[in-house]
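User: Can you predict the 3D structure of TIGR02677 family protein? Sequence below.
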Amino acid sequence: MTTFPPVPAELFRFTTTDQAELHTAVMRVFGVANECLQTVLTADDVQQRLRGVGWSEQVTDDELTASLTALRGWGLLDASQHRYGLTKPGEAAYAGIRHAVHALTTDGALQTAVLDAIAAHLDELQKPLDERQAFTTLTQLEGHLEAFKTGTTRFNADLQRLLRDDQADLATFQDVKRTTVTYLRDFIAELDARKLKIREAISAIDPAELHERARNGAGLVPDQWLQQRKENWGSLRSWFCDNPPRVEELQDVSRKAIVQLLRVLDRISEQRKKPTNTAADFRSLARWFARTETEDEAHELFNAAFGLWPARHAHLAHADGELLPSGEAWHNTPPVPVSPQLRATGKQEHIGSTGKVRNVDEVRRNRREQAEKERAELEYAWSQIQTDGAIRISTLTNLDHDTFHRLIDLVGRALGSDPDSTGTRTAGTSDGRMQINLRNARGWATMTTQKGTLSGPDYVIDVQSR
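Assistant: Sure. Here are the predicted structure tokens for TIGR02677 family protein:
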């Protein structure tokens, strides 16, 4: 099984603390010094060089000492006689943040010049070069290959983000996508000839003999140098010689992106031709809703936008209203017939003018009060059911019938679910307000309400609000 080399847990800890910016600036001081072949610095040296790496704030000696101590504790610095230097993990951490900043601040690119450089170096390696020239040319080839892979990866990521982006300014959005289409077309126009030339050059080179000559020309090299060269050559072959080579996948991605971008551009052009756009209208309406300050303003805007005014048939009633319970839900009651002429002409079928539309404010107020009453009853019922921990159902007494009905509904939901490894069943109300955890318990439970008695198996329940 392939595994990645472990990364020390403390390697990037310095970037996540309250003093992350100061720690990073200190690491940059040591990194810049290393590039100038200065491997050790005193605290005074670090203090003097902070401004040179972009740190503009005043740092006290205590703050700098604390930062150096923390970096040393994380294994990024070592110290001897008040002189500090980067450890190997410290060099890796500094290289890591430089790479991260570079990746965040640069865009990818599909550079045909890089492909030409790869082909030119491969042609050079086919010539009878001496060992030093072979080492130099191979190193340059690998550098161009790495630049090509990095640029391609970033460009593809940028391209996919562009395809998903529809929030930018419309004019800018259109210009960027037109430029990208032209860029992709120019890249793939000569790609077939370039990849064929590179593939033929790779096939004409014996990698084992090349690597041996390059190693001899390199002088002192690490033990893993040859293995690294083999991996890099394998990467080169995977891009241009495999079946299919990865460069053809790049062509496919580019062609699909061109088609998708052209479709987006066509859609933008069509939207500009139309006097209005439904999606844009809804976005504008959403912005208006966001700017309303009260619920009444939001309702007024909703009515104005969708024309939901009081219905003209609100005064119609059932033929025998006394047969219907006052608390019955509207969707459970028989429908009331409404004449089609009421909408078409404003008159009912019987002779005579339609009565005036009555003021429904009183109806609304009564309905609002009824809804508030039902909400209060529901809150009371949930407060009665909620437990402070696990209890047996048999211990629950003095429940009114509505509360009892809701408890039984919760228990039924839990029994209908699958138990976990501990035998516990979990369920919740449809609105997500309450959750019950239920386990089997030995014994029998009997519960009595105003409307009767229910007996059944006892359970241990824990009912909590979410």
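The beta strands are 41-42, 77-80, 83-86, 391-392, 425-428, 434-449, 452-465. The first helix runs from residue 20 to 35.
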